[in-house]
Design a protein that fits this description.
Two copies of one chain form a homodimer. With about 325 residues, chain A is α/β, with parallel strands linked by helices. Chain A contains 13 helices and twelve strands. Chain A starts with a strand and ends with a helix.
Protein backbone atom coordinates (compact mmCIF):
# COMPACT_ATOMS: atom_id res chain seq x y z
CA UNK A 1 0.00 0.00 0.00
CA UNK A 2 1.09 3.60 -0.58
CA UNK A 3 1.13 5.46 2.72
CA UNK A 4 0.85 9.18 3.50
CA UNK A 5 2.10 9.73 7.03
CA UNK A 6 0.82 12.85 8.80
CA UNK A 7 2.97 13.59 11.83
CA UNK A 8 6.67 12.85 12.09
CA UNK A 9 7.16 12.35 15.81
CA UNK A 10 8.35 9.07 17.31
CA UNK A 11 5.43 7.07 15.90
CA UNK A 12 5.39 8.69 12.47
CA UNK A 13 9.13 8.21 12.05
CA UNK A 14 8.91 4.57 13.15
CA UNK A 15 6.11 3.97 10.63
CA UNK A 16 8.31 5.45 7.90
CA UNK A 17 11.19 3.27 9.11
CA UNK A 18 9.23 -0.03 9.28
CA UNK A 19 6.87 0.37 6.31
CA UNK A 20 9.14 -1.20 3.69
CA UNK A 21 9.58 -4.37 5.76
CA UNK A 22 5.79 -4.79 5.53
CA UNK A 23 5.88 -4.31 1.78
CA UNK A 24 4.40 -0.81 1.87
CA UNK A 25 5.71 2.40 0.31
CA UNK A 26 5.66 5.76 2.08
CA UNK A 27 4.85 8.31 -0.60
CA UNK A 28 4.44 11.33 1.68
CA UNK A 29 5.41 12.48 5.16
CA UNK A 30 4.40 15.73 6.81
CA UNK A 31 5.09 17.38 10.10
CA UNK A 32 3.57 20.66 11.27
CA UNK A 33 5.78 22.86 9.09
CA UNK A 34 6.65 21.00 5.89
CA UNK A 35 6.28 17.82 3.88
CA UNK A 36 8.15 15.54 1.54
CA UNK A 37 6.25 13.83 -1.27
CA UNK A 38 7.74 11.20 -3.57
CA UNK A 39 5.53 8.82 -5.53
CA UNK A 40 8.36 6.32 -5.83
CA UNK A 41 8.88 6.26 -2.07
CA UNK A 42 10.48 8.76 0.29
CA UNK A 43 13.96 8.10 1.64
CA UNK A 44 13.16 6.83 5.15
CA UNK A 45 16.65 7.31 6.56
CA UNK A 46 16.84 10.85 5.19
CA UNK A 47 13.46 11.80 6.68
CA UNK A 48 14.47 10.55 10.12
CA UNK A 49 17.88 12.25 9.87
CA UNK A 50 16.24 15.56 8.95
CA UNK A 51 13.88 15.25 11.94
CA UNK A 52 16.88 14.79 14.26
CA UNK A 53 18.45 17.97 12.90
CA UNK A 54 16.47 20.82 14.43
CA UNK A 55 17.72 23.26 11.81
CA UNK A 56 16.37 21.40 8.79
CA UNK A 57 12.86 20.92 7.50
CA UNK A 58 11.44 17.50 6.64
CA UNK A 59 10.91 18.55 3.04
CA UNK A 60 10.30 21.42 0.69
CA UNK A 61 6.53 21.05 0.43
CA UNK A 62 3.76 22.43 2.60
CA UNK A 63 2.21 19.98 5.11
CA UNK A 64 -1.00 19.90 3.06
CA UNK A 65 0.95 18.57 0.06
CA UNK A 66 1.05 15.19 1.81
CA UNK A 67 -2.77 15.10 1.85
CA UNK A 68 -2.81 15.77 -1.88
CA UNK A 69 -0.42 12.91 -2.65
CA UNK A 70 -1.52 9.74 -4.43
CA UNK A 71 -1.78 7.39 -1.44
CA UNK A 72 -3.92 4.40 -0.41
CA UNK A 73 -3.76 4.77 3.36
CA UNK A 74 -3.49 7.92 5.45
CA UNK A 75 -1.57 7.27 8.66
CA UNK A 76 -2.69 9.96 11.10
CA UNK A 77 0.06 10.31 13.71
CA UNK A 78 -0.15 13.98 14.63
CA UNK A 79 -0.38 14.80 18.35
CA UNK A 80 -3.67 14.06 20.08
CA UNK A 81 -5.73 17.19 20.64
CA UNK A 82 -8.88 17.61 22.70
CA UNK A 83 -12.25 19.08 21.79
CA UNK A 84 -12.49 19.38 18.01
CA UNK A 85 -9.53 16.98 17.62
CA UNK A 86 -8.04 19.16 14.91
CA UNK A 87 -6.03 19.03 12.75
CA UNK A 88 -6.34 15.22 12.95
CA UNK A 89 -10.08 15.15 12.37
CA UNK A 90 -9.75 17.28 9.24
CA UNK A 91 -7.08 14.95 7.86
CA UNK A 92 -9.33 11.94 8.48
CA UNK A 93 -12.25 13.73 6.87
CA UNK A 94 -10.28 14.61 3.76
CA UNK A 95 -8.94 11.06 3.35
CA UNK A 96 -12.22 9.23 3.92
CA UNK A 97 -14.12 11.70 1.73
CA UNK A 98 -11.68 10.81 -1.04
CA UNK A 99 -12.39 7.09 -0.43
CA UNK A 100 -8.94 6.47 1.02
CA UNK A 101 -8.24 4.26 4.03
CA UNK A 102 -7.28 5.77 7.38
CA UNK A 103 -5.18 4.31 10.18
CA UNK A 104 -4.99 6.39 13.34
CA UNK A 105 -2.31 6.62 15.99
CA UNK A 106 -3.82 9.96 17.06
CA UNK A 107 -6.47 9.34 19.73
CA UNK A 108 -8.32 12.61 19.27
CA UNK A 109 -10.69 11.82 16.40
CA UNK A 110 -11.95 8.51 17.88
CA UNK A 111 -11.97 9.71 21.50
CA UNK A 112 -13.50 13.15 20.99
CA UNK A 113 -15.53 12.87 17.75
CA UNK A 114 -16.27 9.18 17.36
CA UNK A 115 -19.72 9.52 15.82
CA UNK A 116 -18.40 12.01 13.29
CA UNK A 117 -15.54 9.72 12.30
CA UNK A 118 -17.86 6.71 12.01
CA UNK A 119 -20.23 8.71 9.82
CA UNK A 120 -17.38 9.63 7.49
CA UNK A 121 -16.20 6.01 7.39
CA UNK A 122 -19.69 4.71 6.67
CA UNK A 123 -19.98 7.04 3.69
CA UNK A 124 -16.51 6.15 2.39
CA UNK A 125 -15.16 3.27 0.33
CA UNK A 126 -12.12 3.52 2.60
CA UNK A 127 -11.70 1.66 5.88
CA UNK A 128 -10.88 3.10 9.28
CA UNK A 129 -8.70 1.38 11.89
CA UNK A 130 -7.15 2.68 15.12
CA UNK A 131 -5.47 -0.14 17.07
CA UNK A 132 -2.49 2.07 17.97
CA UNK A 133 -4.69 4.51 19.90
CA UNK A 134 -5.21 2.07 22.80
CA UNK A 135 -2.41 0.11 24.47
CA UNK A 136 0.32 0.79 21.90
CA UNK A 137 1.67 -2.55 20.69
CA UNK A 138 -0.98 -4.59 22.54
CA UNK A 139 -3.67 -5.87 20.15
CA UNK A 140 -6.61 -4.68 22.26
CA UNK A 141 -9.01 -3.52 19.55
CA UNK A 142 -8.15 -6.41 17.22
CA UNK A 143 -8.97 -8.83 20.03
CA UNK A 144 -12.26 -7.07 20.76
CA UNK A 145 -13.06 -7.15 17.04
CA UNK A 146 -12.26 -10.87 16.91
CA UNK A 147 -14.41 -11.68 19.93
CA UNK A 148 -17.18 -9.37 18.77
CA UNK A 149 -17.65 -6.03 20.55
CA UNK A 150 -21.10 -7.06 21.80
CA UNK A 151 -19.57 -10.07 23.57
CA UNK A 152 -17.17 -7.90 25.59
CA UNK A 153 -18.94 -6.88 28.78
CA UNK A 154 -16.27 -4.75 30.42
CA UNK A 155 -12.69 -3.62 30.02
CA UNK A 156 -10.27 -2.46 32.68
CA UNK A 157 -6.59 -1.94 32.83
CA UNK A 158 -3.45 0.09 33.17
CA UNK A 159 -3.46 2.30 30.09
CA UNK A 160 -0.70 4.82 30.77
CA UNK A 161 2.90 3.71 31.11
CA UNK A 162 4.21 6.98 32.54
CA UNK A 163 1.71 6.99 35.43
CA UNK A 164 2.40 3.31 36.03
CA UNK A 165 6.15 3.86 36.09
CA UNK A 166 5.72 6.63 38.66
CA UNK A 167 3.35 4.64 40.90
CA UNK A 168 5.37 1.42 40.79
CA UNK A 169 8.60 3.27 41.51
CA UNK A 170 6.98 5.22 44.36
CA UNK A 171 5.79 1.94 45.86
CA UNK A 172 9.11 0.16 45.42
CA UNK A 173 11.29 2.97 46.73
CA UNK A 174 9.00 4.78 49.16
CA UNK A 175 9.61 8.07 47.34
CA UNK A 176 7.43 11.16 46.91
CA UNK A 177 5.55 11.76 43.66
CA UNK A 178 7.55 14.84 42.65
CA UNK A 179 10.86 13.06 43.18
CA UNK A 180 9.88 10.05 41.05
CA UNK A 181 8.36 12.23 38.34
CA UNK A 182 11.65 14.12 38.04
CA UNK A 183 13.46 10.77 37.75
CA UNK A 184 11.01 9.66 35.06
CA UNK A 185 11.60 12.86 33.12
CA UNK A 186 15.34 12.34 33.38
CA UNK A 187 15.19 8.83 31.88
CA UNK A 188 12.72 9.91 29.19
CA UNK A 189 9.73 7.98 30.53
CA UNK A 190 7.86 11.20 31.32
CA UNK A 191 7.66 14.17 29.00
CA UNK A 192 8.69 17.70 30.01
CA UNK A 193 4.97 18.43 30.36
CA UNK A 194 3.55 15.19 31.79
CA UNK A 195 0.11 16.64 32.52
CA UNK A 196 -1.97 14.34 30.28
CA UNK A 197 -0.22 11.26 31.65
CA UNK A 198 -0.36 12.02 35.35
CA UNK A 199 -3.76 13.72 35.49
CA UNK A 200 -5.42 10.74 33.84
CA UNK A 201 -6.36 12.46 30.56
CA UNK A 202 -4.43 10.06 28.33
CA UNK A 203 -5.94 6.99 30.01
CA UNK A 204 -9.37 8.63 29.89
CA UNK A 205 -9.11 9.17 26.13
CA UNK A 206 -8.29 5.47 25.73
CA UNK A 207 -11.26 4.56 27.91
CA UNK A 208 -13.52 6.75 25.80
CA UNK A 209 -12.28 4.92 22.70
CA UNK A 210 -12.89 1.53 24.33
CA UNK A 211 -16.35 2.63 25.44
CA UNK A 212 -17.12 3.83 21.93
CA UNK A 213 -16.06 0.49 20.49
CA UNK A 214 -17.89 -1.81 22.91
CA UNK A 215 -20.80 0.41 23.96
CA UNK A 216 -24.11 1.55 22.63
CA UNK A 217 -23.61 5.27 22.99
CA UNK A 218 -20.89 7.78 22.17
CA UNK A 219 -18.38 8.91 24.74
CA UNK A 220 -15.82 11.70 24.75
CA UNK A 221 -13.47 12.98 27.42
CA UNK A 222 -16.27 14.94 29.10
CA UNK A 223 -18.17 11.71 29.67
CA UNK A 224 -15.34 10.04 31.54
CA UNK A 225 -14.88 10.44 35.28
CA UNK A 226 -11.15 11.16 35.68
CA UNK A 227 -8.80 11.29 38.63
CA UNK A 228 -5.00 11.29 38.24
CA UNK A 229 -2.06 10.21 40.37
CA UNK A 230 -0.74 13.59 41.51
CA UNK A 231 -2.48 13.21 44.86
CA UNK A 232 -1.22 9.69 45.64
CA UNK A 233 1.01 9.91 48.73
CA UNK A 234 3.77 7.45 49.69
CA UNK A 235 1.83 6.85 52.91
CA UNK A 236 -1.15 5.56 50.89
CA UNK A 237 1.12 3.15 49.04
CA UNK A 238 2.63 2.00 52.35
CA UNK A 239 -0.81 1.41 53.83
CA UNK A 240 -1.81 -0.58 50.75
CA UNK A 241 1.35 -2.66 51.02
CA UNK A 242 0.62 -3.73 54.60
CA UNK A 243 -2.55 -5.29 53.24
CA UNK A 244 -0.90 -7.04 50.28
CA UNK A 245 -2.18 -4.35 47.91
CA UNK A 246 -0.73 -1.58 45.82
CA UNK A 247 -2.13 1.38 43.89
CA UNK A 248 -2.42 1.60 40.12
CA UNK A 249 -4.09 4.11 37.80
CA UNK A 250 -6.93 1.95 36.48
CA UNK A 251 -9.21 2.75 33.58
CA UNK A 252 -12.59 1.01 33.67
CA UNK A 253 -15.23 0.67 31.00
CA UNK A 254 -18.47 -1.08 31.85
CA UNK A 255 -22.12 -0.99 30.90
CA UNK A 256 -22.81 1.93 33.26
CA UNK A 257 -19.47 3.60 33.84
CA UNK A 258 -16.36 4.92 32.15
CA UNK A 259 -13.80 6.13 34.65
CA UNK A 260 -10.11 6.49 35.43
CA UNK A 261 -8.56 6.77 38.85
CA UNK A 262 -6.07 5.37 41.35
CA UNK A 263 -7.35 2.01 42.64
CA UNK A 264 -6.16 -0.58 45.13
CA UNK A 265 -5.15 -3.80 43.37
CA UNK A 266 -3.52 -6.96 44.77
CA UNK A 267 0.25 -6.33 44.89
CA UNK A 268 1.02 -9.63 43.16
CA UNK A 269 -2.10 -9.62 41.02
CA UNK A 270 -2.46 -9.44 37.28
CA UNK A 271 -3.21 -5.70 37.18
CA UNK A 272 -0.12 -4.74 39.22
CA UNK A 273 2.18 -4.54 36.21
CA UNK A 274 5.38 -2.62 36.85
CA UNK A 275 7.34 0.03 34.98
CA UNK A 276 5.85 1.31 31.76
CA UNK A 277 3.97 -1.91 30.96
CA UNK A 278 0.29 -1.60 30.07
CA UNK A 279 -2.32 -4.28 30.71
CA UNK A 280 -5.88 -4.66 29.52
CA UNK A 281 -8.41 -7.12 30.91
CA UNK A 282 -11.43 -8.01 28.82
CA UNK A 283 -14.47 -9.57 30.46
CA UNK A 284 -16.13 -11.63 27.77
CA UNK A 285 -19.34 -13.55 27.37
CA UNK A 286 -17.93 -17.01 26.60
CA UNK A 287 -14.15 -16.61 26.71
CA UNK A 288 -13.98 -15.56 30.37
CA UNK A 289 -11.38 -12.99 31.30
CA UNK A 290 -8.59 -12.28 28.84
CA UNK A 291 -5.47 -10.40 29.92
CA UNK A 292 -3.29 -8.66 27.35
CA UNK A 293 -0.12 -6.89 28.40
CA UNK A 294 2.92 -5.37 26.79
CA UNK A 295 4.41 -2.08 25.65
CA UNK A 296 1.72 0.58 25.71
CA UNK A 297 3.83 3.30 24.13
CA UNK A 298 7.04 3.99 22.25
CA UNK A 299 7.56 4.78 18.60
CA UNK A 300 8.56 1.34 17.30
CA UNK A 301 5.94 -0.54 19.33
CA UNK A 302 3.12 1.81 18.40
CA UNK A 303 4.19 1.81 14.75
CA UNK A 304 3.93 -1.99 14.79
CA UNK A 305 0.23 -1.61 15.63
CA UNK A 306 -0.23 1.00 12.88
CA UNK A 307 1.38 -1.28 10.31
CA UNK A 308 -0.62 -4.31 11.45
CA UNK A 309 -3.72 -2.22 10.74
CA UNK A 310 -2.34 -1.30 7.30
CA UNK A 311 -1.63 -5.01 6.66
CA UNK A 312 -5.19 -5.84 7.66
CA UNK A 313 -6.57 -3.32 5.19
CA UNK A 314 -4.25 -4.68 2.49
CA UNK A 315 -5.47 -8.23 3.18
CA UNK A 316 -9.06 -7.14 2.72
CA UNK A 317 -8.46 -5.72 -0.76
CA UNK B 1 -22.30 -20.05 7.58
CA UNK B 2 -23.58 -23.64 7.64
CA UNK B 3 -21.49 -25.72 10.04
CA UNK B 4 -20.85 -29.45 10.21
CA UNK B 5 -19.50 -30.26 13.66
CA UNK B 6 -17.43 -33.43 13.95
CA UNK B 7 -17.12 -34.43 17.60
CA UNK B 8 -19.72 -33.81 20.27
CA UNK B 9 -17.63 -33.55 23.41
CA UNK B 10 -17.48 -30.39 25.54
CA UNK B 11 -16.15 -28.23 22.69
CA UNK B 12 -18.42 -29.65 19.97
CA UNK B 13 -21.49 -29.22 22.14
CA UNK B 14 -20.52 -25.64 23.05
CA UNK B 15 -20.04 -24.82 19.36
CA UNK B 16 -23.52 -26.19 18.66
CA UNK B 17 -24.85 -24.16 21.57
CA UNK B 18 -23.19 -20.83 20.62
CA UNK B 19 -23.35 -20.98 16.82
CA UNK B 20 -26.76 -19.33 16.44
CA UNK B 21 -25.67 -16.30 18.49
CA UNK B 22 -22.94 -15.76 15.85
CA UNK B 23 -25.48 -16.02 13.04
CA UNK B 24 -24.38 -19.48 11.93
CA UNK B 25 -26.45 -22.61 11.41
CA UNK B 26 -25.33 -26.06 12.51
CA UNK B 27 -26.54 -28.43 9.80
CA UNK B 28 -24.82 -31.58 11.06
CA UNK B 29 -23.29 -32.97 14.26
CA UNK B 30 -21.53 -36.27 14.61
CA UNK B 31 -19.92 -38.15 17.47
CA UNK B 32 -18.08 -41.46 17.13
CA UNK B 33 -21.23 -43.57 16.82
CA UNK B 34 -23.93 -41.53 15.08
CA UNK B 35 -24.91 -38.22 13.53
CA UNK B 36 -27.80 -35.85 13.12
CA UNK B 37 -28.16 -33.91 9.86
CA UNK B 38 -30.74 -31.18 9.28
CA UNK B 39 -30.31 -28.65 6.51
CA UNK B 40 -32.57 -26.20 8.30
CA UNK B 41 -30.50 -26.39 11.46
CA UNK B 42 -30.22 -29.07 14.13
CA UNK B 43 -31.96 -28.57 17.48
CA UNK B 44 -29.02 -27.52 19.67
CA UNK B 45 -30.75 -28.17 22.98
CA UNK B 46 -31.88 -31.63 21.86
CA UNK B 47 -28.37 -32.58 20.71
CA UNK B 48 -26.86 -31.58 24.04
CA UNK B 49 -29.63 -33.34 25.97
CA UNK B 50 -29.08 -36.54 24.00
CA UNK B 51 -25.32 -36.35 24.74
CA UNK B 52 -26.05 -36.12 28.47
CA UNK B 53 -28.21 -39.25 28.27
CA UNK B 54 -25.75 -42.14 27.94
CA UNK B 55 -28.46 -44.43 26.63
CA UNK B 56 -29.39 -42.34 23.61
CA UNK B 57 -27.58 -41.69 20.34
CA UNK B 58 -26.98 -38.22 18.99
CA UNK B 59 -29.01 -39.00 15.86
CA UNK B 60 -30.12 -41.73 13.53
CA UNK B 61 -27.45 -41.25 10.89
CA UNK B 62 -23.94 -42.69 10.63
CA UNK B 63 -21.07 -40.37 11.64
CA UNK B 64 -20.00 -40.07 8.02
CA UNK B 65 -23.40 -38.62 7.11
CA UNK B 66 -22.24 -35.35 8.70
CA UNK B 67 -19.33 -35.17 6.24
CA UNK B 68 -21.75 -35.61 3.36
CA UNK B 69 -24.00 -32.77 4.53
CA UNK B 70 -24.26 -29.45 2.67
CA UNK B 71 -22.07 -27.31 4.88
CA UNK B 72 -19.70 -24.33 4.44
CA UNK B 73 -17.35 -24.94 7.37
CA UNK B 74 -16.25 -28.22 8.92
CA UNK B 75 -15.59 -27.82 12.65
CA UNK B 76 -13.21 -30.62 13.58
CA UNK B 77 -13.61 -31.21 17.32
CA UNK B 78 -12.92 -34.92 17.63
CA UNK B 79 -10.34 -35.96 20.24
CA UNK B 80 -6.70 -35.26 19.43
CA UNK B 81 -4.85 -38.37 18.31
CA UNK B 82 -1.12 -38.84 17.77
CA UNK B 83 0.79 -40.17 14.78
CA UNK B 84 -1.53 -40.21 11.77
CA UNK B 85 -3.96 -37.87 13.58
CA UNK B 86 -6.90 -39.91 12.36
CA UNK B 87 -9.83 -39.70 12.06
CA UNK B 88 -9.37 -35.92 12.26
CA UNK B 89 -6.93 -35.71 9.37
CA UNK B 90 -9.28 -37.64 7.10
CA UNK B 91 -12.13 -35.29 7.96
CA UNK B 92 -9.96 -32.28 7.14
CA UNK B 93 -8.85 -33.90 3.89
CA UNK B 94 -12.38 -34.63 2.80
CA UNK B 95 -13.59 -31.10 3.57
CA UNK B 96 -10.68 -29.23 1.97
CA UNK B 97 -10.75 -31.51 -1.08
CA UNK B 98 -14.38 -30.51 -1.51
CA UNK B 99 -13.36 -26.82 -1.28
CA UNK B 100 -15.00 -26.36 2.11
CA UNK B 101 -13.51 -24.36 4.98
CA UNK B 102 -12.08 -26.10 8.03
CA UNK B 103 -11.80 -24.87 11.61
CA UNK B 104 -9.91 -27.16 13.98
CA UNK B 105 -10.24 -27.61 17.71
CA UNK B 106 -8.46 -30.98 17.31
CA UNK B 107 -4.70 -30.46 17.65
CA UNK B 108 -3.69 -33.66 15.87
CA UNK B 109 -3.75 -32.62 12.22
CA UNK B 110 -1.75 -29.38 12.71
CA UNK B 111 0.61 -30.80 15.35
CA UNK B 112 1.34 -34.16 13.74
CA UNK B 113 0.78 -33.63 10.01
CA UNK B 114 1.17 -29.91 9.45
CA UNK B 115 2.77 -30.08 6.00
CA UNK B 116 0.05 -32.43 4.81
CA UNK B 117 -2.70 -30.17 6.08
CA UNK B 118 -1.06 -27.08 4.53
CA UNK B 119 -0.74 -28.88 1.20
CA UNK B 120 -4.45 -29.72 1.26
CA UNK B 121 -5.33 -26.12 2.20
CA UNK B 122 -3.13 -24.70 -0.57
CA UNK B 123 -4.93 -26.84 -3.15
CA UNK B 124 -8.37 -25.94 -1.80
CA UNK B 125 -10.67 -22.98 -2.29
CA UNK B 126 -11.50 -23.45 1.40
CA UNK B 127 -9.62 -21.81 4.27
CA UNK B 128 -8.05 -23.47 7.28
CA UNK B 129 -7.96 -21.97 10.77
CA UNK B 130 -7.04 -23.50 14.15
CA UNK B 131 -6.98 -20.85 16.88
CA UNK B 132 -8.69 -23.18 19.36
CA UNK B 133 -5.82 -25.69 19.24
CA UNK B 134 -3.48 -23.41 21.24
CA UNK B 135 -4.47 -21.66 24.45
CA UNK B 136 -8.22 -22.22 24.26
CA UNK B 137 -9.96 -18.83 24.43
CA UNK B 138 -6.70 -16.86 24.22
CA UNK B 139 -6.19 -15.36 20.75
CA UNK B 140 -2.61 -16.63 20.35
CA UNK B 141 -2.59 -17.56 16.66
CA UNK B 142 -4.70 -14.55 15.65
CA UNK B 143 -2.18 -12.29 17.39
CA UNK B 144 0.74 -14.02 15.67
CA UNK B 145 -1.09 -13.66 12.35
CA UNK B 146 -1.69 -9.98 13.02
CA UNK B 147 1.94 -9.30 13.94
CA UNK B 148 3.21 -11.47 11.11
CA UNK B 149 4.66 -14.91 11.93
CA UNK B 150 8.10 -13.87 10.69
CA UNK B 151 8.17 -11.01 13.20
CA UNK B 152 7.63 -13.37 16.16
CA UNK B 153 11.02 -14.55 17.34
CA UNK B 154 10.03 -16.83 20.19
CA UNK B 155 7.04 -18.03 22.16
CA UNK B 156 6.92 -19.42 25.69
CA UNK B 157 4.20 -20.04 28.14
CA UNK B 158 2.00 -22.16 30.33
CA UNK B 159 -0.04 -24.17 27.86
CA UNK B 160 -1.74 -26.80 30.01
CA UNK B 161 -4.23 -25.81 32.69
CA UNK B 162 -4.36 -29.18 34.41
CA UNK B 163 -0.61 -29.32 34.96
CA UNK B 164 -0.63 -25.70 36.10
CA UNK B 165 -3.44 -26.35 38.56
CA UNK B 166 -1.51 -29.27 40.04
CA UNK B 167 1.79 -27.36 40.31
CA UNK B 168 0.27 -24.19 41.74
CA UNK B 169 -1.76 -26.16 44.28
CA UNK B 170 1.28 -28.26 45.26
CA UNK B 171 3.24 -25.05 45.81
CA UNK B 172 0.48 -23.31 47.77
CA UNK B 173 -0.39 -26.26 50.02
CA UNK B 174 2.89 -28.18 50.20
CA UNK B 175 1.15 -31.34 49.05
CA UNK B 176 2.45 -34.35 47.08
CA UNK B 177 1.73 -34.69 43.37
CA UNK B 178 -0.51 -37.75 43.72
CA UNK B 179 -2.64 -36.08 46.38
CA UNK B 180 -3.21 -32.92 44.33
CA UNK B 181 -3.87 -34.89 41.15
CA UNK B 182 -6.61 -36.85 42.96
CA UNK B 183 -8.09 -33.52 44.11
CA UNK B 184 -7.95 -32.17 40.58
CA UNK B 185 -9.74 -35.26 39.28
CA UNK B 186 -12.39 -34.85 41.95
CA UNK B 187 -13.18 -31.25 40.94
CA UNK B 188 -13.08 -32.10 37.24
CA UNK B 189 -9.88 -30.18 36.41
CA UNK B 190 -8.04 -33.40 35.60
CA UNK B 191 -9.46 -36.21 33.52
CA UNK B 192 -9.68 -39.81 34.73
CA UNK B 193 -6.65 -40.47 32.53
CA UNK B 194 -4.56 -37.31 32.88
CA UNK B 195 -1.51 -38.71 31.09
CA UNK B 196 -1.34 -36.22 28.19
CA UNK B 197 -1.70 -33.28 30.58
CA UNK B 198 0.81 -34.29 33.25
CA UNK B 199 3.44 -35.90 31.02
CA UNK B 200 3.67 -32.77 28.88
CA UNK B 201 2.23 -34.26 25.68
CA UNK B 202 -0.64 -31.77 25.40
CA UNK B 203 1.67 -28.78 25.89
CA UNK B 204 4.16 -30.32 23.45
CA UNK B 205 1.50 -30.63 20.75
CA UNK B 206 0.69 -26.93 21.23
CA UNK B 207 4.39 -26.09 20.99
CA UNK B 208 4.66 -28.10 17.77
CA UNK B 209 1.74 -26.10 16.35
CA UNK B 210 3.34 -22.79 17.40
CA UNK B 211 6.67 -23.88 15.91
CA UNK B 212 4.92 -24.85 12.69
CA UNK B 213 3.26 -21.44 12.50
CA UNK B 214 6.28 -19.25 13.29
CA UNK B 215 9.09 -21.47 12.02
CA UNK B 216 10.70 -22.44 8.79
CA UNK B 217 10.49 -26.19 9.14
CA UNK B 218 7.84 -28.71 10.15
CA UNK B 219 7.60 -30.06 13.68
CA UNK B 220 5.60 -32.90 15.16
CA UNK B 221 5.54 -34.41 18.64
CA UNK B 222 8.71 -36.42 17.94
CA UNK B 223 10.59 -33.17 17.33
CA UNK B 224 9.70 -31.69 20.71
CA UNK B 225 11.80 -32.34 23.81
CA UNK B 226 9.22 -33.19 26.49
CA UNK B 227 9.35 -33.57 30.25
CA UNK B 228 6.23 -33.65 32.43
CA UNK B 229 5.41 -32.75 36.02
CA UNK B 230 5.07 -36.22 37.54
CA UNK B 231 8.58 -36.02 38.95
CA UNK B 232 8.20 -32.61 40.59
CA UNK B 233 8.53 -33.06 44.36
CA UNK B 234 7.14 -30.74 47.05
CA UNK B 235 10.72 -30.32 48.25
CA UNK B 236 11.70 -28.84 44.88
CA UNK B 237 8.83 -26.35 45.11
CA UNK B 238 9.86 -25.45 48.67
CA UNK B 239 13.44 -24.89 47.58
CA UNK B 240 12.26 -22.68 44.73
CA UNK B 241 10.09 -20.68 47.12
CA UNK B 242 13.00 -19.84 49.42
CA UNK B 243 14.56 -18.12 46.41
CA UNK B 244 11.41 -16.21 45.36
CA UNK B 245 10.78 -18.70 42.58
CA UNK B 246 8.24 -21.38 41.76
CA UNK B 247 7.98 -24.17 39.21
CA UNK B 248 5.73 -24.14 36.16
CA UNK B 249 5.43 -26.45 33.16
CA UNK B 250 6.76 -24.15 30.44
CA UNK B 251 6.58 -24.70 26.71
CA UNK B 252 9.22 -22.88 24.69
CA UNK B 253 9.50 -22.32 20.96
CA UNK B 254 12.54 -20.54 19.60
CA UNK B 255 14.68 -20.49 16.48
CA UNK B 256 16.67 -23.54 17.64
CA UNK B 257 14.49 -25.31 20.17
CA UNK B 258 11.00 -26.60 20.82
CA UNK B 259 10.66 -28.03 24.31
CA UNK B 260 8.37 -28.53 27.27
CA UNK B 261 9.44 -29.07 30.85
CA UNK B 262 9.21 -27.89 34.46
CA UNK B 263 11.09 -24.59 34.82
CA UNK B 264 11.90 -22.21 37.63
CA UNK B 265 10.06 -18.91 37.17
CA UNK B 266 9.79 -15.86 39.48
CA UNK B 267 7.02 -16.59 42.00
CA UNK B 268 5.37 -13.20 41.41
CA UNK B 269 6.33 -13.01 37.75
CA UNK B 270 4.16 -12.93 34.68
CA UNK B 271 4.57 -16.64 33.88
CA UNK B 272 3.54 -17.81 37.37
CA UNK B 273 -0.17 -17.88 36.59
CA UNK B 274 -2.22 -19.90 39.05
CA UNK B 275 -4.98 -22.47 38.75
CA UNK B 276 -5.98 -23.52 35.27
CA UNK B 277 -5.00 -20.20 33.63
CA UNK B 278 -2.80 -20.36 30.55
CA UNK B 279 -0.35 -17.67 29.50
CA UNK B 280 1.57 -17.13 26.29
CA UNK B 281 4.47 -14.71 25.85
CA UNK B 282 5.40 -13.60 22.35
CA UNK B 283 8.82 -12.08 21.72
CA UNK B 284 8.37 -9.82 18.72
CA UNK B 285 10.58 -7.79 16.45
CA UNK B 286 9.07 -4.34 17.01
CA UNK B 287 6.28 -4.84 19.54
CA UNK B 288 8.51 -6.12 22.33
CA UNK B 289 7.09 -8.80 24.59
CA UNK B 290 3.36 -9.40 24.50
CA UNK B 291 1.66 -11.44 27.23
CA UNK B 292 -1.71 -13.05 26.60
CA UNK B 293 -3.46 -14.97 29.36
CA UNK B 294 -6.85 -16.47 30.03
CA UNK B 295 -8.81 -19.70 29.93
CA UNK B 296 -6.79 -22.29 28.05
CA UNK B 297 -9.47 -24.95 28.07
CA UNK B 298 -13.16 -25.58 28.72
CA UNK B 299 -15.95 -26.16 26.26
CA UNK B 300 -17.48 -22.68 26.14
CA UNK B 301 -14.12 -20.87 26.08
CA UNK B 302 -12.64 -23.09 23.39
CA UNK B 303 -15.84 -22.89 21.34
CA UNK B 304 -15.54 -19.09 21.42
CA UNK B 305 -12.20 -19.43 19.62
CA UNK B 306 -13.71 -21.85 17.09
CA UNK B 307 -16.55 -19.45 16.35
CA UNK B 308 -14.23 -16.45 16.09
CA UNK B 309 -12.39 -18.42 13.39
CA UNK B 310 -15.70 -19.15 11.64
CA UNK B 311 -16.59 -15.44 11.86
CA UNK B 312 -13.22 -14.57 10.34
CA UNK B 313 -13.84 -16.90 7.41
CA UNK B 314 -17.33 -15.45 6.97
CA UNK B 315 -15.89 -11.92 6.92
CA UNK B 316 -13.48 -12.89 4.15
CA UNK B 317 -16.25 -14.09 1.83
Amino acid sequence: MRLAVMGAGAVGQAVVDQAASHGHTVVAVADSTSAVVDGSGVDAAAVCARKRDAASEIGTGAPSDALAADYDVLVEATPTTLGDAEPGFGHVERALSADRHVVLANKGPVAERYAGVCELAAASAGSLRFEATVGGAIPVLATIERIGADRVRAVRGVLNGTANFVLSRMAAAGLEYEHVLAEAQEVGVAEADPTFDVDGTDAALKCAILANVIGDREYDLDGVSVDGITGVAPSALELAETDGQTIRLIGEVGPDHVRVGPRLVPANGTLAVSGTTNIVQLETEHAGRLNLSGQGAGGAATASAVLADVDHIADQQ
